[in-house]
Amino acid sequence: MHYKSYYQSPIGHITLTSDGQNLTGLWLPKHTDFEAQDDNPLQEMDLAVFDKAKHWLDAYFSGDNPKIDFPLKATGTTFREQVWQILLEIPQGETWTYGDIAEKIAKKRGKTKMSAQAVGGAVGSNPISIIIPCHRVVGKDGNLTGYGGGIDTKIMLLKLESVDMDVLYRPKHSKKP
């Protein structure tokens, strides 16, 4: 059985999911198809892991850098799970490129090179947004590339973390602020 709970945030309505013990998903307002990925309907329930995740989100949206004190279970291929573990290493207030992560994955796997595009696919499939900070990943030269929650949400999260937006660039089709 899988469960869900809701959190109203400054970026909109967030849905949290759990297997009963672990946080398995944090879905932003623009994520609309996550429930279709589960064979059974998600049941709304109060769980300790949801309470802890909501306290974490309260602290995060207040500008703090809270520690994760609840279990996460982001399920995917071995490669994706390795990428998500690396995302957890990105300090709040910093950004890394897909290439930076590709270098770390290559080293971890004993390879000389890894595709930044493959890393991008793994980053884009992160089921626990914000907490596993995929919003801190930018393209080559600091370009703000796609984000499942929307570029506007990515910008808001980076600003909340005091990232210097003057050193980052918006996608080529957008104007710099």
TrEMBL record:
GO terms for biological process: DNA alkylation repair; methylation. It is an enzyme of class 2 (transferase). It is found in: Cytoplasm. It comes from the Bacteria. It holds the Pfam family Methyltransf_1N. The keyword Glycoprotein does not apply. InterPro entries: MethylDNA_cys_MeTrfase_AS, MethylDNA_cys_MeTrfase_DNA-bd, MethylDNA_cys_MeTrfase_DNAb, MethylG_MeTrfase_N, MGMT, MGMT_N_sf, WH-like_DNA-bd_sf. The keyword Metal-binding does not apply. One of its GO terms (molecular function) is methylated-DNA-[protein]-cysteine S-methyltransferase activity. GO terms for cellular component: cytoplasm. Keywords: Cytoplasm, DNA damage, DNA repair, Methyltransferase, Transferase. NCBIfam families: ogt. Belongs to the MGMT family. This is Methylated-DNA--protein-cysteine methyltransferase. It comes from Staphylococcus edaphicus.
